[in-house]
Amino acid sequence: MNLFGKTDVGRKRENNQDVFYLYQFSSKAGFAIVCDGMGGQSGGHIASDMTCTVVSQRLMDGSQRILSGDGIRELMVEAISEANIEVYKRSNTEPGCKGMGTTIVLAVILGEQVHLAHIGDSRAYLFSGGRLHQLTRDHSLVQELRDQGKISDEEMKHHPNKNMITRAVGVNLMVDIDYLELSLEPGSKLLLCSDGLTNMVPDEEIAAVLRYQSGETVCGRLIALANGAGGADNITVAVAE
What we know:
By secondary structure, the protein is an alpha+beta fold. Helices cover 35% and strands 27% of the residues. Helix 1 runs antiparallel to helix 3. It starts with a strand and ends with a strand.
């Protein structure tokens, strides 16, 4: 297993509020985190950086639990919940941080098993058998409207409130965390990304890059495509292969 990641401010934003972190315990075990902050000029970056730091530290402290395969889900939930409380407390005590929050998509990989946890609209995809599969479901207003049959898939792409998320780290004292576990086939790739990629680049173009590119080239190419399409937001990509 190899982990690669890259982040870019994009072409429209002055600051990058995305943060990612990669860590390998061994050639078969590691984790990747992507966070996309929100809230003011600096609050979003503080929220995403805090969350990434707290979660990564908790996972490294719990390395034996990960390597033994015992209680990985519980460890992930504990780590994100702790980060949620820390961001929430700071948001409510520092005026410049009021209302800040962040998405998170977290993957812990142990051998052929992948454990995923996420909040918000940063996504995880699996590229396997020549096809791209979206693994996470956005916690967003447009996703709820689509689930209710009120808008179409095409309308989701252009809806004026498409960036409004319904769940985030640090906004409330308690937060619901979605969890998924799956097995990886040999030669498959796992992609974590912020919506700065998915709002700009269609799935079929993402799949083409994952099909023909590898290593660090994947991250750079996907970011270049997002910027080429306008780069309306910060763009972060992490790939496990």
